[in-house]
């Protein structure tokens, strides 16, 4: 019997074949949405990791947050060591991590700022989703400043042109982005990293951006719907619906809680696989990813609070947890990274209260011979047994899976420090 259900296995194989074709693709045409390293350097994908304030305070090269490119004003926390916009990044043109300069997200010369600028100050259609908008915009079906289970624990922005060519940017930052276009700015807060009231630049965060064709845009939208992400198709601040009719129809299905209990796996044209976990599939998030990748062993860094009962420990053996679904394959072991290092400087990868926060959700494969790098929405918090709806088990989210040996080695080294104990 194959390790994966056959239809999922076919998706992954198709993604790998597409990736081989994509690697030799021609240059990206002008005026097509794409991940940008700066305003004039499109790539097929990029990944950025923003450090925490305790280990890497401030911005690269002594730069200051001052432009607030997408609205807002510098906050009081940016005047001391209570923030960090230092970052490292990799891309399809240079897949090994390297140091970035300036304040990530606050310039047009960094990947996050440049890529978001083409959306916010452009003419593209867009969907912005975030379970922590902090009431700007207000989401009618949520109570309080954020949206809890069964809404998806997911954040990002997707944009596309009249032909359906698109770009997606997954983020891990609460309260950013919260507007998709300068015509519809936030009314009570900024929309630039370092310029919003919520200090989401104190902790480590990650960003991943990917070029999409028409079918990819549809696949991402379907994954978003399956994961019950928080958005509102009727609010132009976060949704501008246009372009091909099938894309418009898919956008119209967003902003609702999905009844699905089945994950979806989509093979995108880039060779990247997209895994969508629905909220009703009440299983540990990173065990699900392992199972969908054929049971490979994983090492993941997420917002993980070891003192909490919902912190899922490292697992050292393959096996189906008590909180599992019979339709799923067997997951491999999942190690929880609790520290990492960059250029000789160590930093914490734990969550919780204190100086060492990590809110990024990234992982790598450590077995199976395939160098997977995973960029996710979800923390490894919930339960392997007992209350199967606990924490992230009972929420939805997306995982982008990229196969690249150089990037996997580089990210593996980044999060290769200490490991949470198994129990």
UniProtKB/TrEMBL annotation:
Belongs to the DNase II family. PANTHER family: DEOXYRIBONUCLEASE II. InterPro entries: DNase_II. Residues 1-25 form the signal peptide. The keyword Amino-acid biosynthesis does not apply. The keyword Coiled coil does not apply. It comes from the Bacteria. Transmembrane segments: none annotated. Keywords: Hydrolase, Signal. One of its GO terms (molecular function) is deoxyribonuclease II activity. This is Uncharacterized protein. Coiled coil: none annotated.
